[in-house]
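Take a sample.
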Amino acid sequence: MRLFKVFFFVFVLFSFCQKGDAQVDRTEKKLVKWVDDNNADALTLLKDLININSGTMNFDGVKAVADVLMPKFAALGMETKWLDGSSFNRAGHLVAKIEGGKGPKIMLIGHLDTVFEPDSPNQTWRQVDENIIKGPGIADMKGGDVIILQALSALHAQGLLKDMNIWVVMTGDEELSGKPLSESKKALIEAAEWADVALGFENGDGDPATVNVARRSSSGWKITVTGNASHSSQIFKPEVGAGAIYEASRILFQFYDQLAGEEFLTFNPGAILGGTSVTYDDLEKSGTAFGKNNVVSKDVTVTGDIRCLSPEQLARAQATMKRIVAQHLPQTNAQIVFADGYPPFAPSDGNYQLMNTFSKVSTDLGFGEVGAVNPADAGAADISFTSAYIQMGIDGLGMSGADDHTINETGDIRALPKQSKRTAVLLYRLMKGIKLAEKR
């Protein structure tokens, strides 16, 4: 039954979009005008949010950003609350919800935190020129948070929001996920189980002519290798064997040799420690190694990540990696453990249809067509946790910018009204499309 609903929803949406002409209707013009009339206030809000440090581990700062936004969602008639994050050692999440009974159930995804902790030199809004601003999180993703609010406010001003089904989730740990993930991502998954459609407001690739219809996964792996410590003159003898470092080298080379050519699959060994004795701290991502040239290595630890486009690709890659690890050199042993992380946001027909719908909105508003970002160029994001539940979704609807995660992060403030208008009209058309289905 759910599969039938997915195809029916896509068919109705496609049919609705095909019937549209190149002009916006009267309501859509009002939505656009509202955004223009209120853009100055949106810029002021964005500046205020950027000037609040909300590095992931600055819990007070993350909560302060939520404290600014929550009354604004509540003023739209949305049920708004703060979900405390102590169970996963983070500040928490902001959620806002309204259910009016018409149209699809749509979740809008943002995040409150940035990579810039209080000791970062990047702390404030700085004007570069008329259109470009430097500031912590302007593109990733406080600009996207303001776009969500502006689009919903435009719909509210026209009396439309009260009839819609919207669930906003703004997480407080997107840049550094809390543990366990079952607690950290519970709010996202709960909303995804409810929703038909997910819209993510990350920056994407910085180009407003693209959106993400897919994102690769991001999870971890750790290899521990042991060998027989002995005088180096005895290496390769039957009772001594090859040593841990040779075994680790074999494993990593065979990973590369057997898997490196697969499209959309990457696996990066980020750290390696080997020698007579090794320590490694999983939390701090650091360790020590001691060894001598005349001693056969006893221990090696290797940690890395793996990224792929679908659960099936992940399962295949992990199976190959396990098989390689199990083929030991003489007198060595090795184990690999995979860590949970961001699942893949796999491409689907529904995602592409939603992108086409958004592209039609953009064209009708005079902003041009929208295409898909190459998944190889798209990192993981919170929308990834919705993939198993929703019928369709796209990401990258946020504020255009560049140099995310660096002290030179910039945002183009011209994207703020543009993205707010496109989002407001998209939400309106999604509601209208389902209305057509209900009349049939």
